[in-house]
Amino acid sequence: MSFDLAPLAPYAGDLAAGARLTALACALALAGGLALGVPAALMRTAALPLARRVAEVYVDIFRNVPFIVQLFFLFYGLPEIGVQLSAFGTGVLALSLAGGAFSSDAIRSGILAIEPGVLEAAQVSGLSRFAIARRIVLPIALRSALRPLGSVFVNLILTSSILSAITLNELTGSAKIIAADTFQPFEVYALVLLLYAVLTWLVSLSAGALHRRLNRRIY
After folding, report:
1. Which residues cross the membrane (predicted)?
2. pTM beyond 0.70
């Protein structure tokens, strides 16, 4: 068996488009996941039992239910109640909901790692709870949670391959079409494997570099 990439040359643009779609969906999902994960983490560490319970239910649902079930529910189930989303919108929403659940764990760990003396000093200074959360708790927690959040983003990239199940031609969806057209699944998926490896490596490298830069004065 020979490894021949020449027949795949005409499809290079399709693979690149799929990779761009994957990157865009995951970038939007990271932003959405943080928008959900930050308040969920704060609620899980709040003194109010109801707030903690609501956040825990959200996290448990989206962390413990298979992602493809969540995806199918949003794509096929929501239209039954009049909520119609595009495949791309559904994919971003599903990744955001799942990413929010996992990112809340990372941020919550960062919050719990804050020295009690820091919070006591902030309370003594007369700052409100909102000001303490915004100016002290979240900056420290997010800085310490950068590496775990990088892992969450890597997981979003890997999980995004399932979006092809709802007809979204991201990287894996494009690869399926190209493999069917060229009858060269080995070469096609070898390239896709490499592209996913590069994407996740870049994310891990960037997260590590940002973590070192922001924590340089501490360490």
Report:
1. 20-42, 54-75, 81-102, 149-168, 188-210
2. yes
